[in-house]
Amino acid sequence: MREGLFIKKNKARWEKIGAGLSTDADEIAKDFVQLVDDLSYAKTYYPTSRVTKYINGLASKIYLGIYQNRKEESNRLLRFWKYDVPLTVYKHGRIILFSFFVFFLFYTVGFFTAKHDPTFVRDVFGNDYVDKTEHNIASGNPFGIYQQGDSFFMWIAIMINNIIVSFKYFGEGLLLGIFSLKALAQESMRVGVFNYMFFDKGMGAKFVLAVMIHGLLELTAIVMSCGAGAVMGTSYLFPGTRSRLDAFKEGVKDGVKIVIGLVPVLMLAAFYEGFVTRYYTMPLLPNLLILASSAAFIIFYFVVYPILLKRKERSVHA
């Protein structure tokens, strides 16, 4: 085929590819294959022609585009936890802060209700659980309940359960976040009552040192999961210039980001509960280091880091 005819036959298609109008992956792949065929033909019959260099340039452009997209895909997971989750937490900081207020409020209610009504502990946990805990306390192993079973299987079971519970609490927020916050209030009260069981026996400090090894991360994740439910459930109340449906879709998306972002936190909390809490009689220093590192992570990742990211984002757009 003469070069002129070859150009005339394919010019329109090349120009369309060069304009980059197609965004469909299958169509881009098809264009790339055809360009490779064209380039192979041109190199065979017109090796020194400008049309060969032109086709090579088009093929290279598509190839680089595909490579860059793949690179972006591989970094998407890292970007999710590095940027998406912290910025979403910052965006809904007031609701999440309110969730922590609900937690501390009902934790206090549970603690002082148990203090003034001795039967309340058994109403909450049942006689069997309370009797077993009191037996452990009397035998000098107050947190022996965390030493049951195999560490690995305990970790897996707790991790799966807590992840399911966090998504459940999130899903309950569909109606204005009411049921998410109700679940949070119930869980908070149980924690307050549980704490009082040991405080009443003079083991308040031991409770913190033992249970909070895993509880600090676990409770933070549960509180924020309920907060994510409230984010979803209140999203359509004040839609602004958007439709309520669009506002709700965005609320669901943001809530899901928060809950998924908490999965590694729940995994680590379950690991601590399965493998570390059972050794709560460890020396004080490693115990404090675990608590301090967990607290530092929570404060940095969910409070300080989102603020720094937002400030950086504002400075870029200023």
Automatic annotation (TrEMBL):
Regions crossing the membrane: 95-114, 152-181, 193-213, 219-238, 258-276, 288-308
Record bears the keyword Transmembrane helix: yes
Keywords: Membrane, Transmembrane, Transmembrane helix
Name this protein carries in UniProt: Stage II sporulation protein M
